[in-house]
Amino acid sequence: QVQLVESGGGLVQAGGSLRLSCAASGRTLSSYGMGWFRQAPGKEREFVAGIVSSATSTGYADSVKGRFTISRDNAKNTVYLQMNSLKPEDTGVYYCATARLYGSGWYRDTGEYAYWGQGTQVTVSS
Question: Angle CA(14)–CA(16)–CA(21) in degrees, nearest 5?
C-alpha cells in the first residue's frame, strides 16, 4: 500500500520560510513524477509545483515561481518543497501526490495523480 506523509508545515510570518517534506512508503518515488498542491479554505485544490521522475525538469505555478523550489532525494524516497518569501496568500493545506504513470512527468491536473498525502497546514501571518 502506498502512503505519502507530509511534514514541515506550521505558522510563519510573512517573508519567512518553511521546508515541507513528503516521505513515501510502498512506492519508489524516483520512478514517478511528483507534485505539490495546496488548498485554501473555500477554494479548490491548486497546483503549486511538480518534478519529473528523473528530477531533470520542474514546473511551478506563476504565483510561487521564484519563491518555491521542489526537489527530491531518491535515496530517502522523499520530495521537498522549499518555500521562501512566504505571503499570507500562501496559507492553506499543502498536499504531495505521486503520478499515475511509471516514468512520468509532472502535471497541473489533480486527476493525473494516483496517491495523495493527508496534507500539512501552512499558515502565513501578515
Answer: 120
